[in-house]
């Protein structure tokens, strides 16, 4: 039995091929048949391209309604657009949810978010969505720029969270982070981790570091992301950007491949599994500067998460490896401003001193907070010190600071 073409229900692939060959041989198309032939050719060409069809889609492929929603989100200064079945679209403005006026009409149906975004889904992304219930991608809307999309299933149908990606990469000073972080990028090798909850600005911080490398150092940089958010033009450095799901099947596969591409700096969008973590540690040990993110909230949790992902019998070896590879850990969170106008970064920074490396090697992770408090002379900062500084400057309220402090007694002492 002949295989069916995956995009043309009820039509046999061999029959279509035979039709195309006969039409080509005749040199003319029967009335009404030419559009079908051309459509089949386009589908076959698209299928041959493979995962690369998941690249940012063109303006014309966005539905008028989605374009209107994204336009209003950008115009009002929103950071995210949420499309949830059974509800009207909303945008996130200064951390709060606000209705979108362009959403006039009925609430979203069960499949409407999928229909709005389906033109951008490659065959591989459709497969991943079907198998895993969620997929990440990016889209572009003309002068408004690029957007990161997470499409996912819920009990009521398909939902989407769309993040507005800034066109300009902000410097660290503008983000409220210390300029001394740039010094960490001058190292020939090592592991620099930026951690925090989803939406805490980790990707923006890494983009600022890569941008500074790109403008001031002659290095080969490879970024591995899912999806690519900030685009880097070549500067003093050469920057290659790899998108998981479009250019490589997984983070681990892309990272292993990158090690054969003569990189100086490797950015790993997320160390989310054992193989990626193992490859990142090896790369940091063997002469590469590795910048990576984790979804952890403080320094001890970050180090524990890395070691705990490995089997118990390997963890002593991994602690030794991590103690040698680690350069620094930056934990950050976004806190609403006291005036309600946006959010500000609070950050904890640990540098890998001899004392820090000893605790990592021995597995005494609970002592790392003590190393942080004793390391001010090296430039270390605890989260409580960062929050207290923001309270004293009037940037955030004391109530917000207390909500985000892992050591509330330390914060209270700093605010006396």
Q: What CATH architecture of the largest domain do you see?
A: 3-Layer(aba) Sandwich
Low-confidence spans: 1-60
Number of E-state strands = 13
Summarize the helix and strand pattern as letters. Answer: HHHEEEHHEEEHHEHEEHEHEHHEEHHHHH
Name of the top-level CATH class of the largest domain: Alpha Beta
Distance between the termini: 80 Å
Question: Helical element count?
Answer: 17
Approximate helicity band? 25-40%
Structural class: alpha/beta
Radius of gyration: 25 Å
Largest sheet, if any?
7 strands, mixed
User: What is the percentage of strand-forming residues?
Assistant: 15-25%
Arithmetic mean pLDDT: 85
Overall morphology? globular
- The total number of structural domains is 2
Q: CATH superfamily of the largest domain, called what?
A: P-loop containing nucleotide triphosphate hydrolases
- Output the CATH topology of the largest domain: Rossmann fold
Q: Please state how the strands of the largest beta sheet are arranged side by side.
A: 9-8-10-11-7-12-13
